[in-house]
Amino acid sequence: MKASAYVEICAGLGGMRAGLDAAKWRCALALDNDDDVVEAHRIAFGECEYGDVTNRDVESIPPHDLLVAGFPCQPFSSSGTRNGFSHEKGHVFHAVARICTAHRPKAVLLENVRGLLSNAYGHTFASVLRTLTALEYDVAWGVLDSAWFGVPQSRPRVFIIGTRSAKIVDGAAIASPPSTQILRQYLLPFGPPSPVDLDAVIRERSPRVGLKRPVPQTPFGVFGTADRTNCWTWKRVEPRLKEESPSLGDIVCPAFTRKAEVHSVRYWGHSGVTRPYFKQESISHCLGTNIGAGPTFGIEKRKIPTATARSKLLEHANWVREERDHLIFRLVPTRAALLFGPLVESLQRALKTQSIGVTKQYVMLGNLVTPEIARRLGEALQHRISSIAGD
Length: 391
Known about the structure:
The structure is a single chain. This protein folds into 2 domains: 5-243 and 369-387, Rossmann fold (3-Layer(aba) Sandwich); 248-340, no CATH class. Residues 73-84 and 168-173 have low confidence and may be disordered. It has 391 residues and is of the alpha+beta class. Helix content is 27%, strand content 24%. The chain has a 10-stranded mixed sheet with strand order 3-2-1-4-5-7-6-12-13-11, with helices on both faces.
């Protein structure tokens, strides 16, 4: 059977592609507008086009069953500008809409930071949902954390799945659209859902001078569904799975004797003072949220008894400093890729081969979609693709 095809815009280093290819999807086009990213993606997967999707002729995009986009998070991130669609990079979503209008793929799979839900007090996300539902997609969204999937990194991201409206299949009514069925595999909502009037949110929370902070700050919770008629959301969910992740120490410092006592460190500027914060759980902070985007780790200096122990601790480090009675160090990019779980071999090869600075490599890792989540969502979409209406 011929593999279903997908097109990915804002393809980045290729985390989404690594997962979807493992799920037996066929990439018809990968596109990005960063020269370094395109080069790395080509090293990893053999093909990627350079181009700006906002200026792309949609007719030049090949036919596809699934449109994928991890569109830029800077307009929506709490660590970015949070300017939403007024930000120049926010217009990438408008390109998503144009492609869906022209090609009518059976499904869309979008990924972004959690801040998308609250950007502009919910106006931005309401606009996303209304645009997709107007294009005849039933939509579900959910915040999934990489740490639930056996990945040693806490990386909460909102995943949006839209599937072409298909209420009747072979004479039988679908209880819920495929998009909702897929995300309910991973999220258990609690309590009654709250209705959301998308048109009212768009109208009343449109960014403007003098707009007071609405209450609640956003009407959107961490899980929800929407179609052309209704939108429902849940504020509280629990993961349906919580798989054990590999040892953080085995990735960061495998030869160090006291590796279980090494913890992830995030530098954070609070009240004008930048200082390190140590994560007590044995998983990494979200890569990309740290100052400088580097994955940093630390251990109390008194727990490093000898020069040999120090050498083993820093085997995969490229930067080290002493601070607050701790030794703090940064993991090299090729090793840091392992913090994204399995399916990263091609990404490691690209980082090792490409001749760009480590800072840019950290940025690429910071923008990466976790391949294991992409694989599972891709497999679920494959299984349900026959129930999704096509033209």
